[in-house]
């Protein structure tokens, strides 16, 4: 069976939602990051970059990077647009998520929720960058139901994960009403759930 | 004609190499970042995220994020593997480039080459992270000619861009012989060239 090596509260959420959304049978394997299990020789064989999540397919092949995992399982489903430009724009938002959104919003949340350092000197810059990312999303969603096309795509799953958790990082989502409506829309999808803690 | 809005020395290089590689007719439009042209209202219409590069197609459509641009123009060419798992692994390396490689290696180079601050307090951490990224690449390339499959793919173009410029960031590529051989292999490709300054 497909195995998703995960940690709750990190980038594992989007692949988890996708597997639920497409109804693929899979098994969750908890990676004990607090005890550095992701730096163990066994884990580094699965993902030499030492990041969680990673997926192991039934033949033993592995695949890392949450958004590449989304792509692999999304192929052939309605979660990837048929139109060439729309498909590339979906990837545009997935790269935006990795380069612009996650390094600000998820890192701010990590510092506040996990490290519990509300006075960390990095926070003001992370908050400013995160607000800029949310503003770009808000503008885009002002007259759209989903990021690309008229239904859920991989871009929505990738961006839902850390956006709906942004309040933990100190972001007030009330300031972004179009994002709020989009989050609610995503929540009606069968795959959009939370992860088990372990 | 396709227009590539670019700045020399930044993420514009990979899309530029790709357009050269596939032989598409295109025009380069210099974005004067030093004078904040990428924050002008006209540019923000092309890319609301205010990042360079962006591509404008003949019908006026735009597409941002260097790796999404690679995907768009690479579709249907040998630069995207036919095999489903290989295709996802190509994307895995492209997300690695954006999340793990660029934020360390390109930022170190920016600080040293453009800001000319060799004593910047961020450099030790950036160098350590960049070295870890290069080590992951070195291991992967030890018994492979290219990142995925047996010929050039989008992953090679994405990673070539800042890897061959890594010495400017203070990285000694002599310590990574497999990377050195891979860079030389990439350089024999017709599209692998430098960008004009303006």
Q: What's a quick, concise take on this entry?
A:
The structure is a homodimer of 198-residue chains. By secondary structure, chain A is an alpha+beta fold. In chain A, 48% of the residues lie in helices and 8% in strands.
Quickly count the helices of chain A: 7
Order of helices and strands of chain A: EHEHEEHHHHH
Report how far the terminal alpha carbons of chain A are from each other.
Answer: 19 Å
General shape of chain A = globular
CATH hierarchy, class of the largest domain in chain A: Mainly Alpha
Largest interface: A-B, 33 and 33 residues
Please state the average pLDDT score of chain A: 95
CATH level-3 fold name of the largest domain in chain A: Glutathione S-transferase Yfyf (Class Pi), Chain A, domain 2
Describe the biggest sheet of chain A? 4 strands, mixed
Oligomer: homodimer
Question: Uncertain segments of chain A of ≥5 residues (pLDDT<50)?
Answer: none
Which value, in Å, is the CA radius of gyration of chain A?
Answer: 17 Å
Strand content of chain A: 5-15%
